Amino acid sequence: MKTLKTQVAIIGAGPSGLLLGQLLHNAGIETLILERQTPGYVQGRIRAGVLEQGMVDLLRQAGVSQRMDAEGLVHDGFELALNGQLKHIDLKALTGGKTVMIYGQTEVTRDLMAARKAAGAITLYEASNVQPHALKSEQPWLTFDYEGETFRLDCDYIAGCDGFHGVARQTIPADALKIFERVYPFGWLGILADTPPIHDELVYAKHERGFALCSMRSATRSRYYLQVPAEEPIEDWSDQRFWDELKTRLPQDLAAQLVTGPSIEKSIAPLRSFVVEPMQYGRLFLLGDAAHIVPPTGAKGLNLAASDVSTLFNILLKVYREGRVDLLEKYSAICLRRIWKAERFSWWMTSMLHHFPEADGFSQRIAQSELEYFVDSEAGRKTIAENYVGLPCEAIE
Length: 397
Ligand code: APR
Ligand code: PHB
Hints:
alpha/beta; FAD/NAD(P)-binding domain; six-stranded mixed β-sheet; 13 helices; 36% helix; binds P-hydroxybenzoic acid
């Protein structure tokens, strides 16, 4: 078996793995990324599109912000559509100047892949059977298959950035983990279209037929979502049916502005809340979707991945530069404090805005009234805004 060596072995070349790799590389800490899929597959996934200020700053720190700064759209607010009317959430005014950046995860991934390539750092794509070993020892290692051969990779630390279905979390003994989960009885049907967005800000719409979201990727590319039942067959949704249903769920004045066109991507994603505790086992650390999932209603998934990356990066920096190994044991608790707040916000936005078919009339009226209260009160709008732009990250000291 051929043996390789690195300082931090990273499993998964999604946004978590690539961003951690870039920050560590820039700091002179060597990484090697093992990715199961091809670059084309990783690149082709259409996912989120709203970046918190903290993530924008981290991408700038990593030196990969050039295209984002040129092409990303800064949004000062968003709209909630309720009872046929738009209610503005002025993020900037309500948070003392904070905003969000509209820039697709696809583009973030592309920029990170290009930066890693330019830096000459190694990603082994189509690496299979990745298996971490000796996690509780000071010399953990991995085995994997690549181009028909089996390799051993020795390292100091392993970063599990391999998403919800990855191997890292599954390697940890089940009795060492506690899982918290909620599955929602609906999914999001999303389409991407080369049409101008319906509005200059995002619109989150509550409607008795179900939730709808109007988002965008650029001035010429729109992203729309509809709440659909959990097991909905995608074949049942022609483009025409999608556009008709979207119009029904939006306030009339807004629906009249909708420009339709052929979809260039269409998919259904289930909605789930999931957290694993702790996010560390010996020298293995879990980051991003490997450790937690949020329903997309709060636009938090990608941003949480970035805050885990920031936390682990700052800890490893102090470990390598100052010998602060005491910090390693704090990783999970620091991450989880922020994650649970984002889980709460994502659950709340989901609960307020979606139609829960099984909820009784009383529960539906309470949700309606809770949302109206939040939207019509300055304190309520402030609470929504400060969560939406992202709560602060803890300093690593
Ligand atoms: N071996 C190697 N690579 C693996 C393995 C494995 N056993 N299992 C999964 N992977 C790879 C996947 O192919 C994928 O490229 O790990 C990567 C995980 O990427 P993501 O699922 O994108 O997870 P993450 O990087 O944490 O991104 C955070 O935020 O907006 C959300 O869900 C959205 O993907 C987004 C996430
Ligand atoms: C998206 O543009 O894909 C998007 C935006 C906001 C969300 C979720 C998804 O809350």
